């Protein structure tokens, strides 16, 4: 008998003395872990909402609003802000509903469905935030280039550049590159914030799927 076989036999002997968990016990463990993860997603969404609302309030003073009005962006900014807050509150409510559903789930199939719902809601939440950020940045860039304090200087520089088309292509290209970098940072922020929790939920889902087979 070779060394590998001896190790296998030794492991099998040890395995006999290990505690064996029933199907219900495993389900209960996965359910508790999943419920805790969804609860944290709910809490983090509230903290994030309060954090950004505080930042927005702190840095948007009368002077900032005057600048926004000068760039003819007051109405669209107000509209986006109201829509953003309404949708974010809706998502927080959805996270709460998902947490409640997962807390009272009594079967593996229902728990699997609840996990998928949580993943879908978080994905929608992240993409909504990225979309709002992108739209806000593009609108701000348009206002800044068209009506901002430096708009006249930029237009004069374009006219004196020799080739106005190339100047605008380069200027807009650099601005879009900056937006793309900021978007990447925002995406990485959400990936770090919610990615770890979703990966744990995915692991739980796979374990439940194995149990159902």
Q: If you had to describe this structure to a student in words, what would you say it looks like?
A:
By secondary structure, the chain is mostly helical. The protein is 88% helix and 0% strand. The protein has seven helices and no strands. α2 (23-59) packs parallel to α5 and α5 (108-147) packs across α6 (151-159). The chain is elongated and about 75 Å long. The mean pLDDT is 82.
Tell me the radius of gyration: 26 Å
Q: Helix count?
A: 7
Distance between the termini: 36 Å
Low-confidence segments, given as residue ranges, are: none
> Which bin fits the share of residues in helices?
over 70%
Number of strands: 0
Order of helices and strands: HHHHHHH
- Beta-strand content: under 5%
User: Mind describing the biggest β-sheet?
Assistant: none
Give the helix/strand class.
mainly alpha
Query: How would you state the average pLDDT, rounded?
Result: 82
* Shape by Cα distribution: elongated
Give a nutshell description of this structure.
88% of the residues lie in helices and 0% in strands. With 213 residues, the chain is mainly alpha-helical.
Short key terms for the protein model shown above:
single chain; 213 residues; mainly alpha; 88% helix; elongated
